[in-house]
């Protein structure tokens, strides 16, 4: 077995079948199938079995995939150890980031860092904040960028605060807000908690949600088309012409904001390439909106 075989096994386990695993590691499905068949012959075991949903790992295959994860982490640890001994900054930084952070904040930062350190590569995964934090907790990434006040007891840096607001294309009587049509959107549970807590502090009625969409940018367009109001981070709507924006406040009359964080583990903080990147990010003023 070679190192690529371990990567193939781990990826099949994570993705659930050969088809998705092949795309993830940029190999053709026949090439992956051929590698698995060679391994089965070499080890004299069945690694996969066929089902209606495609090829699945056998118990022996699951055992090998579990070992693969440990071996890959060990090899990466060795490689990072070598990087610490090397004066030149090179290697791969593994990042998990919320969809918003990767869409609006990080691409320019990663590009600028790579211009400064051209030998550095990035491996980036995106998704909901709670899922991105879980990847950091499982040692799958070096750094996680999350939105919301999640519990993390190791290294952290507050990147910026986003005021929350009520946005609509026409003036609203906030006293009658429960009667107005609201556009809602899928988001992580921390933001839902923030909005729901504010709502319950101000209204006894449930909101009149007329439309639910999958993302904040779609919600913004619905509101901009006059289809209702929404409770959103101000950043999302503040540049829409004619948009009426009302800040929202807690029971102590403090502006309600959403925090965005950079989390990292103590284990990776001392790796030179990761430490340099953390210091670079910490010096950036993310509160300034890009033109």
3D structure, described in words:
- The strands form 3 sheets. Strands 3, 4, 5, 6, 9, 10 and 11 form a 7-stranded mixed sheet that branches.
- It is built from 11 helices and 11 strands.
- Strand 1 (48-51) and strand 2 form a beta hairpin.
- Helix 1 (3-15) packs across helix 2 (18-24).
- It folds into 3 domains: 3-74, Arc Repressor Mutant, subunit A, CATH 1.10.10; 83-161 and 259-282, D-Maltodextrin-Binding Protein, domain 2 (3-Layer(aba) Sandwich), CATH 3.40.190; 162-257, 3-Layer(aba) Sandwich (D-Maltodextrin-Binding Protein, domain 2).
- The chain is 45% helix and 24% strand.
- It is an alpha/beta fold and 291 residues long.
- It has helices at residues 3-15, 18-24, 29-43, 59-85, 99-116, 129-137, 189-202, 216-224, 234-237, 266-269, 272-282; strands spanning 48-51, 54-57, 91-98, 120-127, 143-147, 155-168, 181-185, 208-213, 230-233, 244-247, 257-264.
Secondary-structure blueprint:
Layout: H1 3-15, H2 18-24, H3 29-43, E1 48-51, E2 54-57, H4 59-85, E3 91-98, H5 99-116, E4 120-127, H6 129-137, E5 143-147, E6 155-168, E7 181-185, H7 189-202, E8 208-213, H8 216-224, E9 230-233, H9 234-237, E10 244-247, E11 257-264, H10 266-269, H11 272-282
Helix pairs in contact: 1-2, 1-4, 2-3
Domain HTH lysR-type: 1-58
GO molecular function: DNA-binding transcription factor activity; transcription cis-regulatory region binding
InterPro entries: LysR_HTH_N, LysR_subst-bd, WH-like_DNA-bd_sf, WH_DNA-bd_sf
């Amino acid at each position: 077995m070679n190192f690529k075989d371990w990567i193939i096994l781990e990826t099949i386990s994570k993705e659930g079948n050969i088809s998705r695993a092949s795309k993830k590691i940029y190999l053709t499905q026949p090439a992956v199938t051929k590698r698995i068949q060679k391994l089965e012959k070499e080890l004299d075991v069945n690694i996969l079995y066929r089902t209606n949903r495609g090829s699945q790992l056998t118990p022996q295959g699951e055992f090998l995939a579990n070992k693969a994860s440990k071996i890959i982490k060990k090899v990466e640890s060795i490689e990072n150890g070598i990087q610490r001994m090397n004066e030149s900054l090179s290697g791969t930084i593994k990042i998990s980031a919320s969809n918003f952070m990767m869409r609006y904040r990080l691409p320019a930062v990663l590009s600028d860092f790579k211009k400064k350190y051209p030998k550095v590569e990035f491996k980036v995964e995106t998704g909901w904040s709670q899922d991105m934090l879980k990847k950091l907790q499982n040692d799958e990434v070096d750094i996680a960028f999350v939105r919301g006040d999640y519990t993390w007891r190791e290294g952290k840096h507050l990147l910026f605060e986003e005021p929350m607001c009520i946005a609509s294309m026409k003036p609203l009587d906030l006293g009658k807000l429960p009667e107005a049509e609201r556009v809602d959107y899928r988001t992580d549970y921390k933001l839902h908690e923030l909005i729901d807590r504010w709502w319950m502090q101000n209204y006894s009625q449930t909101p009149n949600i007329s439309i639910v969409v999958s993302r904040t940018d779609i919600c913004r367009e619905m509101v901009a088309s006059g289809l209702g109001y929404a409770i959103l981070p101000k950043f999302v709507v503040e540049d829409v012409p004619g948009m009426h924006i009302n800040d929202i406040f807690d029971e102590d009359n403090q502006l309600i904001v959403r925090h965005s964080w950079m989390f990292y583990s103590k284990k990776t903080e001392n790796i030179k390439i990761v430490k340099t990147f953390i210091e670079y990010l910490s010096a950036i003023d993310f509160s300034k909106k890009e033109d």
